[in-house]
Amino acid sequence: KYLKTLDEKKPVVLCGDLNVAHHEIDLANPKGNLKTAGFTKEERDSFTTLLEENKFVDSFRELYPEMKDAYSYWSYRFNARAKNKGWRLDYFVISHGLMECVCDHVIRSQVYGSDHCPIVLLITL
């Protein structure tokens, strides 16, 4: 509700680790994680509601609707990052009207230092 009210005054950019992989394409092993936190039906439905009810956009998926193996998080276990067995948990969720200003959304998967990597949103002002 707060974001919707804010969006009425100015464009919104919500960014960060939202701890949900929205679609099956957003994680390496969707079938094996249907009951895992971050990929439950309830979490995914809630994310869909956030986007649809507020007219917000997942900027990465808007630009790259079919891109596979694009992840921003990898477990430290099982050598997941080296195998690129990850999840896309980090987002730039933006006001629909801002999409016309978006030049690119980059997942910097080669930047190490955490179990997450940086994501970058390039926009024109």
Mean pLDDT: 97
Structural class of the helices, strands and pairings?
Answer: alpha+beta
- Taking Cα atoms only, what radius of gyration do you get, to the nearest Å? 15 Å
Task: Count the DSSP helices.
Answer: 4
Order of helices and strands: HEHEHHEEE
Poorly predicted runs of 5 or more residues = none
Proportion of strand residues:
15-25%
Binned, the helix content reads: 10-25%
Strand order of the largest sheet: 1-3-2
Number of strands: 5
| Largest sheet, strands/sense/barrel | 3 strands, antiparallel
General form: globular
Distance between the termini: 26 Å
Structure description:
By secondary structure, this protein is α+β, with helices and mostly antiparallel strands. 23% of the residues lie in helices and 20% in strands. The protein has four helices and five strands. The strands form two sheets. It has a three-stranded antiparallel beta sheet with strand order 1-3-2.
